[in-house]
Predict the structure.
Amino acid sequence: MSSVVATGSDAGHAAGHNRPLLVVAALMLSSFTVGFDTRVFSVGLTDLRGAFDLSVDQASWLATFAAAPQIFIAPAVAWLVTVFGVRRVMVGPCLVYAVISLIIPFMHGLGALIALHIVRALLLGVFIPATIMITLRNLDRRYWIIGLAIYSMRLPLSQNLGVFLVGLYTEHLGLEWLYWQDVFLTPLTALLIVLGATREPIDKAQLATADWGGMLLLGSSMTMIYVGLDQGLRLNWFQSGTVTVLLIAGGLLAIAFVINERIVRHPWAHTSVLASKNLVLGFAAIVLFIVAASPTFLLIPGYLETVVGLRPVQIGDLYIPAVIFPLFLSIALAAFVLHILDARWGLIIGFTCMGVGSLLATPLTGVWALQNFTVLVIIQIVGQGFTLLSAITYILSNADPKKSTANAAYVQVVRLGGAELSATLMATFVSKREQFHSNVLGTHVTEAAPATEKVLSTLRPIFQTISEAPSADALVTLSKQVSAQAYVLAYADGFLISFWAAIAGLVLASLMGQAPEGPLSPRR
């Protein structure tokens, strides 16, 4: 998502590519690789923990190190591509990434795993940021919306179908395929770039005035904040010295970055690019989109795994029919709507659908199964398609083309930092609400309560024939039922939060001003 509409006006000849469509295909493929890799790893972490013989704490840190380094490098990638060219920036990382993905399943020991995942995440952070920049430079203006539509499918498709892929790999092909899928995809990306892109000369003028300090400060600050957010819930936030130090240090480095950009002679990502109200509202819409999309990203899979006890391969039975066709249809409809209507109308349609989908899930009970979620998932997916494409279009339309690399830097901060912040806040909310509901329910489940004794008297005869301690087993079963009900209520509260996030998105859309006339403006 990079706001580089600037130089892409004439089918990308400025970028110097002799086969531009191959380059566009390569970068689209790399962006989808990032989405699926990130989702597959997070969903399959439980199985990987067993395969690598890791404790819960070790697996949690491995997940953090497998994601956080992306935000260290991602803000600077658009600048690196501008200076060094897409071939120098992309081809090497694609090949190294394939090698690392090949050898990780054979590794043992936490240190080696963390080191390889850090390098892998750094390389992963290279793949997305240049995608839209290069795409717009290589496509005729008539096809920009189509290019953006293909790109915008990345997030909903990977987040929702990642559950199915994990089930496919763990149940049928083997855990190593959580990594080995990239052994084929990233070399193909490198090949397409080699065939499609000429070797561009290094921009020595920009290189000589590089703001390395600004890049290092922004990357370091965002990485520390990302790690602090990722570990915050598990370590109980500011009760943990580690989380406290990470968040404070990240905040101080962010302040140092702002100061640096104001005093250096050639700032790389001057904060003046955020002076546009429309641009800031567009960024906020992306953050609210992630919260409003949490029913399909987080809440439904969490409920089905925690309460119903389904495996990812079983959850895939819901996501395959309810995601693929509705998503492609919604993206196509959204692209058509954006040809004739302002992007704000696309946001209104999208957030409305997402709000309706979330609202349909608020009456959640413990008897809901896969089929109960089909309609609301379809409505949510249609909303996600409209919202994301409209938000990307609106941001690009309002960005200053002369500050393309600075715009791209902040877009990556929003893409990764906003996603982590939204996911962390939702996970924290669900966890705290589960504790609240568990305490409230527990006050009514006492041995003296008639209802408790009635349930236990029903359970004891069941365990008498299969257990030496039927009373204890009956009590454990009742405790699990109370815990499951607490999770049901917590997830229902989460659906309500995502509903209000969609309402907030509608309010944002009403506050947005009209974007300047440009290639992405609707036909009058």
The two ends are 26 Å apart (CA to CA). Residues 1-17 have pLDDT under 50 and may be disordered. The chain has three domains: 1-208, 211-267, 274-524. The first helix runs from residue 20 to 43.
